[in-house]
Specification:
It is found in: Cytoplasm; Golgi apparatus membrane; Cytoplasmic vesicle, COPI-coated vesicle membrane. This is Coatomer subunit zeta. The protein is α+β, with helices and mostly antiparallel strands. The chain folds into 2 domains: 132 residues, Beta-Lactamase (2-Layer Sandwich), CATH 3.30.450.60; 31 residues, no CATH class. Helix content is 45%, strand content 19%. A 5-stranded antiparallel beta sheet has the order 2-1-5-4-3. A two-stranded antiparallel sheet has the order 6-7. β6 and β7 form a beta hairpin. α2 runs parallel beside α5 and α4 crosses α5.
């Protein structure tokens, strides 16, 4: 008998937090999802703990307070992604890598504390494109960058085309000159 009742509940890959700290362990950006860390005090204590643990060692995967935290250093900042104890570490790593690669691309490989602070709107957009309410939506940085990049219009404004035509410095003058020679 093939019954839908016997199937396990579908599960979405989720994160509990995405955090960016400077080299001193101070918060640059933190987004917490769910109620794992309900108060600001608990969040700050958790950030201090993971910052202290990553400064002492070069580990990339931490088990802290019953959660899994992955980290990646970018010059003088460290990006963290925090998942539940049963969460797939490879998927968490792909989301963290997507965040870091998107930051590097959007900030033109200048990912440091000052550039993050100057471009905080872009940093928030990157996180929102990758994670929505704790659910990992994207793990490919190219797609994130493509969605966030503003496309410029390749055609010049009409006023410039008219000016080029009147002054004879545009493409129209070249075709007119060729016509005169024939």
């Amino acid at each position: 008998m093939n019954s839908l009742e016997n199937l396990p509940d579908p599960s979405l890959y989720t994160v509990r937090a995405a955090i960016i700290l400077d080299h001193d362990g101070h918060r640059l950006l933190a987004k917490y999802y769910g109620d794992s860390f309900p108060s600001l005090k608990e969040q700050r204590e958790f950030e201090k703990r993971i910052s202290h643990m990553t400064q002492r060692s070069e580990c990339e995967v931490l088990l802290v307070d019953g959660v899994t935290a992955l980290c990646q250093r970018l010059s003088d900042v460290t990006c963290y992604i925090v998942g539940g104890p049963q969460e797939n570490e490879l998927l968490l790593l792909s989301a963290l890598t997507c965040i870091c690669e998107s930051l590097c691309h959007m900030l033109r490989k200048n990912v440091d504390r000052s550039s993050l602070m100057e471009n905080m709107d872009t940093v928030c957009l990157i996180l929102d494109e990758i994670i929505d309410q704790g659910v990992i939506l994207e793990s490919e940085s190219e797609k994130v960058v493509q969605r966030l990049s503003f496309k410029t219009i390749s055609e010049p404004a009409f006023g410039f085309v008219l000016f080029d035509y009147l002054t004879g410095s545009g493409d129209h003058s070249d075709s007119r000159k060729r016509g005169d020679l024939e």
